[in-house]
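pls design
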């Protein structure tokens, strides 16, 4: 088997790669704070909300995002960052996977049914969400405390 690369094909491949790489991260500036707009699995999302400036900037654009997720913890409802987030479609295909989401994460997804699963401090919660393409949906995750540890094993106890 022999592979051959033409200069036209190589040029087209290089241009395609450059366009794809430039679309990976799109920074947006808001009041001296940096909020990142990124693409993951062809899903554009906004993640941030640490500090008053970022929270206000994200709230101003909230209506543009079909799915808006907010993460909090403890009795005082303090915002929670560093959340592991998985959004899957109705067939279980991952649409958005983040290892450090929050405290506010917005996603542009087409109309459909989704499962949103978030994990913080060893505790996992899931929500079923239907996006109708007309109105955005707010999904809140709140962890009331820290997980209890089993005395001998150090693993989470039910």
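designed seq:
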């Amino acid at each position: 088997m022999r592979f051959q690369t033409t200069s036209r094909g190589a040029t087209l491949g290089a241009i395609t790669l450059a366009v794809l790489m430039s679309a990976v991260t799109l920074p947006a500036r808001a009041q001296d704070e940096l909020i990142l707009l990124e693409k993951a699995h062809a899903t554009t999302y906004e993640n941030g909300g640490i500090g008053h400036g970022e929270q206000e900037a994200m709230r101003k654009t909230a209506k543009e995002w079909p799915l808006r997720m907010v993460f909090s913890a403890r009795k005082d409802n303090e915002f929670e960052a560093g959340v592991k987030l998985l959004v899957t479609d109705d067939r279980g295909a991952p649409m958005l996977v983040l290892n450090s989401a929050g405290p506010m994460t917005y996603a542009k997804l087409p109309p459909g049914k989704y499962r949103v699963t978030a994990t913080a401090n060893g505790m996992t919660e899931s929500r079923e969400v239907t996006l109708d393409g007309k109105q955005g949906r707010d999904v809140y995750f709140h962890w009331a405390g820290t997980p209890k540890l089993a005395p001998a094993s150090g693993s989470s106890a039910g």
